[in-house]
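Researcher: Structure prediction, please.
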Amino acid sequence: MKRIGVIGAGVMGTGVAQNLAAVGLESVLVDVDDATLERARQQIQRGARMSRLLSPAGANGARSPEPNLDLIHYTTDYTELGDVDFVVENITEKWDLKSAIYPRLDAICAPGVVFAANTSAISITRLASLTTRPERVLGMHFMNPVPMKPAVEVIRGWHTSDETVRTAQELLARMGKEGIVVADAPGFVSNRVLMLTVNEAVYLVQDGVAPAADVDRVFKSCFGHPMGPLETADLIGLDTILHSVEVLYESFNDSKYRPCPLLRKMVDAGLYGRKSGQGFYTYS
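Model: Predicted structure follows.
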């Protein structure tokens, strides 16, 4: 694998492209317009500098070199994915948006190319059914920020082959990550637990049990978590949290997954967290 397609230039897509560049892999980063791609370029440049500053210094005090960001090709033209060796799709967690991509990729990419859906809740089996290569489709649920996280959930769909899993694991190993294989079930492992935790933490704020900062302090001080659930929600994006909870609610038809009204109201108000500058906390 030398050239990787990355669909979606949001928080996750930019993180994946940055991580690929850091290990010397070329990527084709695709999104709908040039303005989005320019924002992605600036975000990747900032992220690369920050990752370098946060990386441990060597014995001589020197930092690792910055990744070659020229390895990232920005485009709005999906046909430029015709020669990629692997695709990581990072579209927003909405079925109508994600589902439109897979038949398109299927027609453009070579038959042996693996499609990896970076999703926190949507069924891999259902996405794979939109292609002529369901055995070559799986999930790769990256965590945010992508370059800093050492592990990825790898989700095996109903038809996903062993070879496809091995191919994904090889790519992740080159990116410096461990792939943890789980079954295709709504929310998989991480988000089936995390989204319930975040949603319930929002209920605590809505019900006046404690302000956001104190909810997070309990988790950090009492349990040793590096971030509280509401800080985590702001980092992920409250809109993404809401989409994920809605998928769980729809998938299980269980009232325990009902989205908190305060979460929905904040998303309607455009308070998405770090990426909008305001969520449960304010960011400059």
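Model: The CA atoms of residues 117 and 139 lie 5 Å apart.
Researcher: Thanks, that helps.
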